[in-house]
Specification:
single chain, 235 residues, alpha/beta, Rossmann fold, SIR2/SIRT2 'Small Domain', 6-stranded parallel β-sheet, 3-stranded antiparallel β-sheet, binds adenosine-5-diphosphoribose
Length: 235
């Protein structure tokens, strides 16, 4: 019997219980670093060294971070469902928890690329725990300055088309740990088929506009995924 398809949109709250700061909660990342300065293409062009150091620090933090129970429960859904994770997160915790189909809308912290054409597949390369940093003067395969493989504000989100194709064929749509404030990611829900059940896991109320029935679980990712897994397996 064909497995039902689940698409899960995740955000920074998915990794909060792994100790990684979210962006917009109190004490979030954007409180200490102005978004414009460290997460926009203008900021990078104005002060590349500051931006390279910002991502070098986040990469080092990631090397000392492990997937939380919520990531593991998301991966476990693959035992009973066909699962695609569409994440706004740049960490690799979904993959390290065992999720086998992950689409990163905003890039990947453990990868680097060309500053001339960031989406040139020939220039996208893996950074390793042994060599996690990018410095001024490091070169991509096309000879340009190597930069983080991150989608900054002001840049296109090329993977969104893949995410739309997945959402349009989902039988169940799940949202975990995102404030739904950044587009196009937050707009993914508008591509699900009418009537597709939506489940939202977040300790806070988030604005989810959908013609479909929305079931909210006001808990953190780990507890919320325990509760949702029971619901999904008794559907
Ligand atoms: N479990 C689940 N959700 C949580 C938890 C938790 N333990 N802790 C916080 N949250 C929720 C918050 O309530 C909030 O709704 O996670 C969400 C985090 O929202 P943001 O900080 O805005 O992060 P996100 O939605 O992923 O931001 C989207 O904005 O800054 C850019 O590119 C960056 O990908 C990011 C995008």
């Amino acid at each position: 019997m064909k497995k039902q398809k689940i698409v899960i949109l995740t955000g920074a709250g998915m990794s909060a219980e792994s100790g990684i700061k979210t962006f917009r909660d109190a004490g979030g990342l954007w409180e200490n670093y102005p978004v414009q300065q460290v997460a926009s293409i203008e900021g990078y062009e104005e002060n590349p060294r500051l931006v390279l150091d910002f991502y070098n620090a986040r990469r080092k933090e990631l090397l000392h971070t492990t997937p939380n129970h919520g990531h593991l429960m998301v991966a476990k859904l693959e035992e009973d469902f066909e699962v695609t994770v569409v994440t706004q997160n740049v960490d690799n915790l979904h993959e390290r928890a065992g999720s086998s189909h992950v689409i990163h809308l905003h890039g990947e912290l453990m990868k680097a690329t060309s500053s001339r054409d960031p989406n040139d597949p020939a220039c996208i390369c893996e950074l390793t725990p042994e060599h996690p940093d990018i410095h001024l003067g490091d070169k991509a395969a096309d000879g340009s300055q190597l930069r983080p493989y991150i989608v900054w504000f002001g840049e296109a989100v090329p993977k969104f088309e893949d995410a739309v194709r997945e959402a349009a064929t989902a039988d169940i749509f799940i949202i975990i740990g995102t404030s739904m404030q950044v587009y196009p990611a937050a707009g993914l829900i508008s591509y699900i088929r009418p009537g597709t059940p939506v489940y939202v896991i977040d300790p806070k109320a988030v604005p989810v506009r959908s013609a479909s029935p929305v079931h909210t679980i006001s808990k953190g990712a780990s507890e919320g995924m325990d509760e949702l897994s029971k619901i999904l397996l008794t559907r």
